[in-house]
Amino acid sequence: MTANPFLLYGTHALEAEPVRLSAGPLSADFVNGNLRGIRHGGIEVLRAIAYIVRDRDWGTYEPALSDLLIEQSDDRFSVSYSASCDGPGGSRLCFDAKIEGSADGRLTFDVSALPESDFETNRCGFCILHPIAGLAGSPVKVEHTDGRVVDTKLPLLIDPWQPFKDMRAITHQVRPGVMAECRMDGDTFEMEDQRNWSDASYKTYVRPLALPWPYVLPGGQTNRQTITLRITGGSKVTAAVTGAEPVRIEPGEPGAKLPDIGVVIYPEDVEAALANLALLTKLRPQQLLLHYDPTRGHGLDALQAHVELAAAFPVKTTLECVVACSGDLDAELSGVADMVRRAGLRLDAVAVSPSVDRQSTPPGSAWPACPSLEDVYAAARRAFPGIRLGGGMFSYFTELNRKRVPAGQLDFITHCTCPIVHAADDLSVMQSLEALPFITQSTRAIFGTKPYRIGPSTIAMRQNPYGGATKDNPQGQRIAMANSDPRHNGQFAAAWTIGYAARVAPAGLEMLTLSSFTGPFGLLAAGGEPIAEGEPRPLFQAIKALCDLAGLVHVAATTSDETRIAALAGRSASGETILWLANLTADDVLVDASAFGQGNLVMSPYAITRIG
């Protein structure tokens, strides 16, 4: 990679280069103490084996590694290190890790942890990630802690709860005749379907969520866990060579129209939006999603601010209305409607969701006190007669999948996603795009042909359903659950955004919102960035591309390697086809676009480009 990292990622900080561990056909990348991309004969067997320590808000500690020793030969490799996590109040957890792999397909990862004193955590132990591409819906064999062995399948549609509990081992087919058994010792494990959070994996983790959390690891007591992967069968193979051939782009069949593109507007950002009205006009989004939250003190002033922007930029408007549910629903919602009328705010739609539903209800937890959604939606209908009514979740698909709203009362369904709930490294964020088709397919399976909206979905987390708050990120690092992310300022976000739109396009959405206009989730640079304050970020070009495609017929452009190149195409009424490509990697990628009248082209890291 020769491009300026600051322009790509919005930060000068680069991620640690992985160390490739190899033993015959077995390979894995060692990164920050854990394993990624575990392959056999070039085929991904596991996405990761990682030893994870989380705090009481589900934030992930970054252990400090010491005494790292890596040894490799043709038929084996080994890694050992020590690490520590510093918790609140001077608490400290130390652990020793040992990783060994051999050419016969055996891999072990062993960790012994010792708290110096009582150490509070929501999770301490191994997470094993199975990939979803090629595995979703496929047969597996699950061994339980009581010795039972069950032949079953990984879920195809996204499971709202844990598909497998009380696990000791899971076995799946890598390729015909080759099987992989992952055995977990030292505690009781269970699996969750991480596609709920747009992670591209099934995650097997410790410990069961039905047990209380946070919990305390007693000081001075050692906790040992071991993961053993055994790959058996098949003839001797060597690792496959990938990335040499150009990625081919092929046109497919036409489908539904591409969605309207919205930008979310917060009351506190209206003034900046008005100051940059020329750029908003250049962007030409089809809708403004106007955020209103009485639990944050929004009232008539907030609605009047929205009126000023809607008057200056007259497009369709939707009020994203958080419902406090703190008293009589009719009184609350009619009060909001009355303020809308007093402010003179013209609305095309209103979406409502109870404030408490922005918080997650994990397995084993009690649903928070809340009026029935039937009553909430009925009150909203009475308050806003003649206006389209939407509902769902202002948080993520996870919450919609677990609390399936009575959609018969609604004109459209909505939810958001966020790619940094569990991990914030570059690869995990881009891999999250793989999960999006499963999210839209699962939503369609629940709600049928009901009009469907997604967003606001941004790299940074605007609200944390899983803890007390999002994580502040003043240093601009790659942090899970952070309320700002440096990559939002770089070319990375532009590529991710085109990739996002390409992955959800087959779902026939009526609206897609992937940014605000200004503010921390916005399209304009703030101070201290590589772009002058108030100038468009690279993300502006990507959102403008989507705005220009809105309403065109989606053409299902396919790529020979969706992990490297995303393709989104639309066809106008005159028959012109417009194709947008995004390089989803940190490397130059050769693309064969001859099927679209373009020869081979080289796309630089995280570049987006238009053809046609």
Description:
- The protein has 612 residues and is an alpha+beta fold.
- The protein has 2 domains: 5-232, Beta-galactosidase, Chain A, domain 5; 259-550, Glycosidases (TIM Barrel, Alpha-Beta Barrel).
- The chain is 17% helix and 37% strand.
- It contains 11 helices and 35 strands.
- It has a 16-stranded antiparallel beta sheet that branches. Strands 21-22-23-24-25-26-27-28 form an 8-stranded parallel barrel.
- Helix 4 (300-312) links the parallel strand 22 and strand 23 (316-323).
- The model has no long low-confidence stretch (mean pLDDT 94).
Record the SSE blueprint:
Layout: H1 5-9, E1 19-23, E2 26-31, E3 34-40, E4 43-54, E5 64-72, E6 76-86, E7 92-102, E8 106-115, E9 119-121, E10 123-131, E11 139-144, E12 149-153, E13 164-175, E14 178-185, E15 189-193, E16 201-205, E17 215-217, E18 223-232, E19 247-250, E20 254-257, E21 260-265, H2 270-275, H3 277-283, E22 287-292, H4 300-312, E23 316-323, H5 329-343, E24 349-354, H6 373-383, E25 388-396, H7 397-402, E26 412-416, H8 426-431, H9 436-447, E27 452-454, H10 491-504, E28 511-516, H11 538-549, E29 553-555, E30 558-559, E31 565-571, E32 577-583, E33 589-592, E34 600-603, E35 608-611
Parallel strand pairs: 19-33, 21-22, 21-28, 22-23, 23-24, 24-25, 25-26, 26-27, 27-28
Antiparallel strand pairs: 1-2, 2-3, 3-4, 4-10, 5-6, 6-7, 7-8, 8-18, 9-17, 10-16, 11-12, 11-13, 13-14, 13-15, 14-18, 15-16, 19-30, 20-29, 29-31, 31-32, 32-35, 33-34
